[in-house]
Amino acid sequence: MRKIIFSVIFLVSALGLFAQGAVSSECDKLIADFFQLRLKLTAYDQVLDSAKARAEIDEFVKEHEVEFNSLSEDEQLAVENFYVNEYYNFLYLDSKQKNTCRDMMKAQLLKNEAFCKDKTDAELNKWLLVTYGDVTSCSMAFSMKDVMKYGLSIKPLYERAIALDPDFFYSNMNLGQWYYWAPGMAGGSKKKAITFSKKAVDCARSDAEKYYANLMYSQLLFENKDKEGAARSLEVARKIFPESKIVNILVEENAKGKSLFEYNKDRSDLKEEK
Q: pLDDT tens digits for 29-51?
């Protein structure tokens, strides 16, 4: 009898661990398909091809409506976060769209806050946690006050996603970025940035995942004065998708002694804020 009871307890515990933050295969498939679209869109100029890129995102949303509607509520929000973040990528640099972009990201942030409030990780999933962090990060890009308000709330979201899946490439990659950007007094660490970014490279599976992981890792290596290592990782990304404009830009910027991070700082509104 004791053996049976132990077996039942073990089974229930195992099921609980499996359910915690679980993601359906349908959700994983839809996100993987969207990553392929994201990879394709790196061939577009973020300003000149903005309308064309957004039209492709709209078309993807329309074509995958059935799959999206089959997902759980938390999975739907995670996928929606990806859609909105990619829209952001092709609106942010258009001066005529700044207000629209800011309002869109703020609304998505509030939607995530409302949904995730008081929920445990057993009620969420790893994709939602990490994309919630991404939405928060993007929404901060318009105000230094928001950076101060939300900056420290992002790291726990990435860490919770890693706790659910230590080999999750996306949260490792984004946590690496957080460690790079965060000041030392807030816990930032260039060494940890490298560690998590390398883990993302090791865990990446699809070509799209390997592209993004190697792209980010290359720039952290560049910041760490490892220019040869940076060039090798950037070349991995280039071979995966030679049409990528951002890879070509980074080759040029790196040759000038600048990384992706400096390139993004130069385009940020925050440097203009009084």
A: 999 999 999 999 999 999 999 99
What are the backbone angles phi and psi of residue 80, rounded to the nearest 5°? -60, -40
Assigned token pair, 179: 């460690």
* Percent of the chain as helix, strand, coil, to the nearest 5: 80, 0, 20
**Rg of the chain over CA atoms, in angstroms?**
19
Q: What is the dihedral of CA 243, 246, 249, 251, to 10 degrees?
A: -80
Residues 6+ apart with CB under 8 A from 230: 218, 219, 221, 222, 254
Degrees to nearest 5, angle at CA 46 with 209 and 74? 50
Contact 270, 141 (CB under 8 A): yes
Is 263 within 8 Å of 250 (Cβ atoms)? yes
Max intra-chain CA distance, the chain: 72
96-130 burial, b for 16+ CB within 10 Å, e for fewer?
ebeeebbebbbebbebbeebbeeeebeebbbbbbb
Give the residue carrying structure tokens 């950037």.
Answer: 234
> pLDDT for 158-211, tens place per residue?
999 999 999 999 999 999 999 999 888 889 999 999 999 999 999 999 999 999
